[in-house]
TrEMBL record:
Organism whose genome encodes this protein: Quillaja saponaria
SMART domains: AAA (SM00382)
Keywords, alphabetical: ATP-binding, Hydrolase, Magnesium, Nucleotide-binding
InterPro entries: AAA+_ATPase, AAA_N_dom, At3g28540-like_C, ATPase_AAA_core, ATPase_AAA_CS, Mitochondrial_chaperone_BCS1, P-loop_NTPase
PANTHER family named in the record: BCS1 AAA-TYPE ATPASE
GO process annotations (BP): response to stress
Protein name: AAA-ATPase
Enzymatic reactions: ATP + H2O = ADP + phosphate + H(+)
Gene Ontology MF, one: ATP hydrolysis activity
Amino acid sequence: MRPSAEHFTSSFSSFRSASSWFELYAAFSTFMMLLRTAINELIPIQIRSFIISKFRAYFFSHSSYKASVHITECWEMNRNELYYAAKEYLPTKIIHDFKVLKVGKLEKQNKFSTALDGGQIVEDVFDNIKLTWICSKIDPPSSHLKLKNSNTLAEKNMFVLTFDEKHREKVMESYLPYVLSAYEATKSGKKVLKIHTKFSDMGTIWQASKLNHPATFEKLAMEPELKKAIIDDLDRFLRRKEFYKKVGKAWKRGYMLYGPPGTGKSTLIAAIANYLKFDIYDLELSSVFSNSDLMSAVRNTSNRSILVIEDIDCNKEVLNRSKLNHDPSENAYLRKMARCPDEKFTLSGLLNYIDGLWSTCGEERFIIFTTNHIDKLDPALLRPGRMDMHIHLSFCKAHAFRFLASNYLDIHGHHPLFEEIESLLEEIEVSPATVAEELMRSEDPDVALGGLYNLLKRNKMESGDMEIKEEEKAPRSG
């Protein structure tokens, strides 16, 4: 069958219609090229970027794209303060219709505390921004459970914070600092002090226990001038953060407590911790086998804390080198240390932590050493900048005795035995601990003071006998 005239007319019209569309597309493309050229030449790039951002914000305002922040328990081998801030902050956002609550009560708290249970979702609103928190567990490969040459366990917990991507800047610059500030505001008031002990044979660096020591400066049997000097120094340290930054020094302070056994060194440390509301990290140097071990322990202590090294004179490495030359075994030990300093704990490693580069591993910290024999220590350990205050705690004298009698026996006035006891205390050396123990033997002030008087008299007679024997042993001339 031959095509009709109508068929040819229809095909021709379709061809002309397609041609028109092509011409229209070409004209539109040319117009857009000219418009782009005009925009690029006439409108500055800053204005173009602003217009484009507004277009994107308008057309993609309902986008479901989310961003998330992972806040792990540790950060570069250190305690992550932001993690603990979130841990403290989020329980305040737990609402009444939560089906699972984790509840507990500490000994010194009056109310119950709530905490997040694993996997629980908490929603928060900040400046009209909706945020979602969830506590998650980290299960690292077994090969990464421990860091090389360290007892530090890899981090196991983290918080995941999710929010709309468009609010990233406000979350990072405003919301997270807000969480940190809320944590700092509540931390001091409700903090339960802890004492941390390092164990060399355990996976964790520090094991924590509650610090229940009741010592306060009001209860210390100490000379008023010395007590005031210590309190003034503590207060001055706390308020001088900007000063330390201005002069370029790490915000830390070193105390050397020295004196005979039983003179109250450990009690003073507890009183300082209770006054400052600082945790204590009790470091046994016998558990430190190398400088890297020391660094690992130090890096895992928190800010606002006290690092305590008691009886530091018991460690060979910190003793005065000039007084060790006569001992062959000590000389052999020093030669060994010189050959392999990186494999052992050294005095230089300790000094580097006190005022070297390691001292910048934290801020608002105290370092307290105690010793019964300060004369045995290397002078390098004692100079200002390392041990800023040397606090001598001596034997019990009249003022300390009166304070103990008031504290233990509620004697606030005079007692017939006071003068005789005070006279004996001036002649013999007795520690405050010995006096306190004797005063605790009876609730009757007359009996307790009588027992103390008899003890001091016996000690005086024994010391006199010892002096006589020493004189008899002394060679006589002629």
